[in-house]
Structure formats: structure tokens, C-alpha cells
Amino acid sequence: MTAWTDHRTFLRRALRRPALIGAPAPTGPTLAAAIAAVLPATGAPTVVELGAGTGALAPAISARLAPGARYLAVELDAELVAHLRHRMPWLHVLQGDAADLPALLANAGVGPVDAIVSSLPWTLVPPQQQREMLAGIAATLAPSGVFTTITTLTALPTRVRELRRSLEATFGEVVATEPVWRNVPPSRLFVCRGPRAC
Ligand SMILES: C[S@@+](CC[C@H](N)C(=O)[O-])C[C@H]1O[C@@H](n2cnc3c(N)ncnc32)[C@H](O)[C@@H]1O
């Protein structure tokens, strides 16, 4: 399998389930490097990726982490889960809904998480559902943990403002990075710390 296979699989699933996939192409290496740079580079952190797709973030994330780190990926779409398991047998993939994160991690025997990265299509999710999902994310993070999510510059500004409000209701600190223009579509990160007890 090749990067071309990844793109073809991604596009097929995006055409079949546009609201779930929420992007025309896998994340590019510049944005993947930016999201990986937020993760701890030393120690033995537990890192969870939400919405792993065809695994576009996985090489940058695994390269960032030290050998003792634990890295798990959550993906809802069954075809993408099969693709990930075939393409990246070293990656611990949990098939399920990010909305059920606490239960998914408890079933996998995973305790508090040090970092969660997400490329979920948040701006396509209604605010009430966003907040419920974010509450689950905050509940699984260690107090010193960090949650980072990609948001595209092509998303409707009103939806991005709603997302930001949901993030600010869930975390004590929410920082938006500069845009990463070398990505399709151009995107930025929200880096969130200080999970509140929801
Ligand atoms: C924009 S794609 C990003 C894929 C990949 N991480 C990348 O950067 O190229 C969003 C991914 O999130 C997955 N997804 C969407 N909603 C989800 C949910 N509630 N739980 C788990 N995965 C979800 C989709 O199936 C898709 O693979």
C-alpha cells in the first residue's frame, strides 16, 4: 500500500460519508508536524488520536514520541479501521465513536491520558453534541494534559466561533495557532489546556 492508496481510500470514504469525514484529503505533512510538535517528546506519555482516518498524522506522532510512550488511535468508520490495521499494524486502533471515549479507553485498560489530538470535523457537529464530546475528552485527560484539534480555515466562521466557545467552556486555556497554509485545506490548531471538571 502506498500514499496513493491512502488518498484513494480517504476520497472514497469522504464521498460516501461526507459529514463524517469532513475533509477532501488526508492531512499533509506540514500540519501533521505542527500537531505532533505539541506532544511531549520525552517520558512515557499516553497519547490518543481521535479520527485517525488513513493514518496521515501517525508517522509524525510516532516519530515525536519517545520509546516508552503509548499511542492509541480512535476511528469510527469500519473501512478506515481496516485500512489502518492493514497499513499500520504497529498502531493500536480502537474502533468506536469519539463520543464514547471514556468507555473506549476504560475497555482498553487505559488510564488518564497526557495528550489527545483530533482532526474530527467539529464544525459539522452541533454545539450541544460538541460539548458532550468535549466533556468526555476533558474527563479522560490528566490535569496537566493537552488537547489539540485541527480546524480548517474553510469552515464557516460562525461554526468556528461556536467551536471556540465550546472549547473555552471545557478548558481553562484555548490558544489558536497561526494558520498552516501548506495544507489542503489550510488549517490552524486550537491547543487547549486545563481541562475543567464538567
Ligand atoms: C478530517 S478526517 C481526518 C483523518 C486523519 N486524521 C487525517 O488527518 O487525515 C476525520 C476523521 O475522523 C473520523 N471521525 C469523524 N467523527 C468521528 C467520531 N465521532 N469518532 C471517531 N472518528 C470519527 C472520520 O471517519 C475521519 O476518519
From TrEMBL:
Segments crossing the lipid bilayer: 133-156
Annotated InterPro entries: Methyltransf_25, rRNA_Ade_methylase_Trfase_N, SAM-dependent_MTases_sf
Protein name: Methyltransferase domain-containing protein
Listed Pfam families: Methyltransf_25 (PF13649)
Keywords tagged on the record: Membrane, Methyltransferase, S-adenosyl-L-methionine, Transferase, Transmembrane, Transmembrane helix
One term of GO molecular function: methyltransferase activity
GO biological process: methylation
